[in-house]
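Weekend entry, working from home. Most of the wet-lab plans are on hold until the incubator is repaired, so I used the time to fold the two sequences that have been sitting in the queue since the last round of cloning. Logging both here for the record. First:
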Amino acid sequence: MTDNMEREPMLELFIFETYQLIDQLEQALLNFEKGSELEDSINEIFRIMHTIKGSAAMMLYDNISTLAHSMEDLFFYLREEKPENVEHSKIIDIVFEGIDFIKAETAKIENGLEPDGSSEELKAKARNYLEQLKESNPSANDSKHESKKGTQENSDQKYYIRSDKNGQILTTNKYEAVIFFEDGCEMENMRAFSVIHDLESIAEIVSYTPQDVLENNESSLVIRNEGFKVVFKTDLGLEEVKKRLSQTVLLKDLQVYLTDDALEGFEINDNEKNSLGTDEDKSTVSSEEKRIELDDNVDQASKENSKKIEDGKTSEENARENGKEQSKNAGKQSVISVNIAKLDRLMDLVGELVIAEAMVTQNPDLKGLVLNNFNKAARQLNKITSELQDIVMSIRMVPLAMTFQKMNRIVRDMCKKLDKSVKLEIIGEDTEVDKNIIERISDPLIHLIRNSIDHGIEKADERVANGKPPTGKLVLEAKNAGGDVWIIVKDDGRGLNKEKILERAKANGLLFKPESELTDREIYSFIFLPGFSTKESVTEFSGRGVGMDIVTKNIEMVGGSVHVDSTPGEGTTFTIRFPLTLAIIDGMIIAVGGNKYTIPTVAILESFRIKNEAIIQDEVGNEMIMVRGECYPVVRLYKRFGVDTGITDLTEGIMIMVEGENKRMCIFADALLGQQQVVVKALPKYIKRVNGVAGCTLLGDGDISLILNVDEII
């Protein structure tokens, strides 16, 4: 894969914005299918397709731009003509196919490949359905042709007539537009070029400032401070021009005017001469007055709908618009797109800074010295380092909303192909996690949701027969719990068949202890093993024994775990648990012999020395300890990892009670060395994965400490 730090800035911007637009488009299509705010959804889809078309054409990716153009034509017809007998599901299927094509081609570009896919078949589908709509709605078509015919018949004569009277409007207008982009959007010169490229399809460009938008990167600074000015001619009205330009991506402010020479070459109706005045009168009118008069006369109706001019609005409309504007500004914030590779590098540097700080403040040469000023400076350094770490961590944190919203498409496609009705409920989508974790959990969520719909949720007739509502319910929930994030996928389907799972596990030789000793959760966990499937036949979605093992692999790669609980006839719940971040954690350093280990503090409940607690042994030698009437298993770390130590008597060392997987146990160590922030480093590739070890870290004195995985030890 091409390193995205080495890509051209314009190409990087295209890839980033295309993916963003695709996500927005999928959500708009799902809203369109549900029928909520139908007109708004059509406008939104049209706008997004128009933007994709323009940016792809600018980058010379014709297969993407022409496909987007055909989709745009379809929604333009829906928006303008509002035809009847529209098959929404058919339109959505066509556009979703187009989205998948654009997504695949963009992925090729991202990986440094040539986007050579053919979109001819998809374009033909869009064109054919558009023709069907036009044939089934001839009235709208006829009126449009009549309108065009009337315009052509009178195109030879050019008249200037006030818009509040019936008659012909200007057929050629000259406009001046000033465009400001959002603060921090970067590469304003490229965005300005995109505006020019888009305008060329509807207008004749007269001039634009600055003129060297492509050749000179410094033009971005001029556009940022003074705006991008463009003068062009078109036969579109003022409101249509404003609508077109308002679709510019990351637009902050837009000003559009008819220029002073807009009347040149136009005859004036006799009835209008008095209202406009004599030639002598007109010559004394200032340039600004002419512009205002022209705007008022030519497009008063448009100005009543414009945000800039509110004189024509009722007080109620003004109040409503002001409220909307204030609410937009209240939640608005300046943002800047940053390459994730740069953030990873920044995180690495902060990690090294944390290690360097520990090396300075915990230097063995300082032992026994009274250094008041040094300690004061060290505390200040620690404070600044902690704040810097928190800021960098917060930059990397992104909400799960976008990942969760993508699941709507998965549910929609699955229901359509399996002929099931399922409602997806999303809870806690604002929960934030590390960017790297987001990338790892998308595939597991897709597999879990597919599993719930395919295996779990029944068809409508079966649900009704079992006394359930015909529409199944699928809940996708995220929440914070201590230093962990929990994602729960829950359905109200038929549940897992424990007997069938156990039978298949026995046949495959997967039982690791006597059947009578297996808990329900342990039996259900067999479904996560590679090659395990209870499906008798292979379908498009399941039956090959792959998928659920991918869930566990991806989640374990980010230090997480997944569990399943099920109640027959009531449903199944998958619970994913993973750390909030992977980079820096608070840890307790413990000593075992000559080695040092780190236990994440979020897993520690308490530490104590054994006094009167009872030690119990079972018949195979497993030790347990009674603490306040509760019995907990004991793990001696020196035995677990084969470490030589002189402290083997439980009364001489220290017990650390930890919790994981909803279970508790006590870890026996020589001593506690103290708590500190540690940077999590992966074990070298030449070391085989060690059960119970999550990684390693470098301590302040230069020693290496293994970080324990409490869940695996339990």
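Second, folded right after the first finished:
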Amino acid sequence: MRIKEGQIFNLMDTNGRRNDVINALQGYLTILDDIQNEQKMNWASMPESLAQYEFYRQAIELSPEIFGKHGPYDKLAETLERNKDFATAVQTQDMEWIQKNSFMFQSLVKQFDLGIEDRARHYTSNLVKLGFTDEGREISPVGELLLDLKKLRKDDLETMLPIDGVNIVYLRQLMKLRLFDTEGERYYSPFNLAIFALLKRHRLSENEFSELVQGLSPYSDFSDIEQYVLNYREGDIVSGVSIDIPAEIHTNERVSETVFRDNYKNRKSNAGVDIYWVYYNLLFDYLENPSSATIDKLLTFFENNKAMLNKAFGCGQNIFTQKTGDRPTTIEFDKQYKKMFEGNLNIYIFKQFSLSKILDQIREYSDTTKRIFKATGIISFDNGFVELAYRELCACIFEEEIIKNRIAGSISEELHSYYDCYAEYEEGINSFYCDVTSLSQILEYYEEETKQVEDNIQKEFPGATIEEIPVIVADKRRKEFAEFIDKNYPAEKVKEILGLFSNRSNDKLIKDIVSPDATVPTIYEYVVGIAWYYFSGKRVDILSSYNLTLSANFEPLVHAGGGQGDIVIYEADKVIMLEATLMNASSQKRGEWEPVLRHSINLKVEEETANTGREVTSFFIADSFDYNTINIWKAVAAVPLQSSNDKDKFTDNVVIMPVNTDELSSLIDKSSEYDEIISKVHKLFEVDKINFDIEWREKFMGAII
């Protein structure tokens, strides 16, 4: 990614930024895959292609809670309604007709771009920034890997880390991510700086971390980066910034309102500038007439607008530090704020405004950077502080001096077999950035270096073989997750959260309680897993059973996909698969009937092929059920069914037991009957093929709860 001098980088375009970043990127990639590989559209705008329109259409369909308002799209739909022939051509994707007749519909064709195709380009630009597609939106080998994680091959070092496939893909890409100058020569690697800073400092405040990572650029001075990191304190990033003062501001006199409004702009609110203008005049009122009255007016206005004024003029700190209501004398006030009033007030205020804007931008953009960094699974963000997770492992894998040397440099001075110039590094589908490369390849750890890293890791785990260490680390992670659940999700709280899902107006509350970074359906799977953990008497390894990607702090981020069940729990004598959905009853037939049955069949065939002897049971968890769907599931338990993975293999007695959310909540208190209830479910499915009881489910659940 190239950036201009003075530009603050962002990993997600402002137009379309959202909290569930990882879910958004996964969804956008899935839509592109459908457009390119299923619908065979090329990425172009109207009238050449419907791809960008189709992308936007699918995006709002995929995330209706995010794209609740889409005025330009609705307006286009109304226009198409009045132009039936054009609408039919769009619906049937008849590009030949559209291109032949587009000269008659020029204004309509332009309407496709305004707020629709342009937004599709904005949203997908985020995939380009992370190397999941090239500039032409062709899905890269890395993007293909993210779509099909079954093809992921971990190297020896990646196997050491207790993180999943999605984590690995993001870790690799962020290790490769570079911000280049406009010439494509000098570069800065923000993620390598992040790792280096956390190796040196162990723990940073979130503000210090975000300023360090987000505030630097390929134009920065990296000659003494170690001391810069060690000595960095919050706000330092703007301390050395040079501000150009406009000529009309360079005066000791009070400027006119016109001049003020031309130079003090608020990107989001005109009302904000009104407040700035009043504040500015109150400062000059005090400067021209220092008195208790002018101090009181100034501080009263500040106290009533503190958040906005601190953000605009205080670089995130309090401009005035008095307690609310306290009023100093003029002598005390002049002494305390000498820097503000001793020189040119106009220059001082403009500098503070400019520096605050830079710092505000850094913190605004760093919110998305933080969410994407979370996806690596190795950086912990907790209670306002940032640390490396699995520190003993990371300190060995990410050798400090090697990471330091990767923070910045000039591409022409590097000697690499992978690339020789900027174009080969990140331009195009065949570039190094877009290609699948393991952590060892990225760090250029060959046999000798890998052996040294493994030796260093073994020193951290005395007495353990290198093969045992991933098991030890995973066991520790499971224990930490159990402690996390006990602390953050006691059984009663889980029941309360489960009770919120039936009303989608609770979505924001659910995200606030659990994780703003995940969608509510993803959170539902996560909470269902915790509920089942309690139902099992805390004996199952729910962490390893999730098909969810988690952060280092055990927060859910995204459903990993890959054609598996949502949660698959392996025990010595049984395998339990949980399929959780928030689809309502009318949507289940279309969205859940086939995948749930397919996952259940394939899992049972896999177990039988491996001859494990384990009993396989699927549970379908939802708020309400489509009766045709659940009755068909019960009926098919008595017939042979074919595996979709191996057409030569069949199985029967596939058990899919529907359990609603309230019933799952009640099962939390039935942990002593866990094995017995699972056994009863299997007996229930030994059906009488002639007499089918339509109330079979309600009777069974009523008997056990």
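Plan for Monday: verify the second prediction. The CA atoms of residues 651 and 664 lie 28 Å apart.
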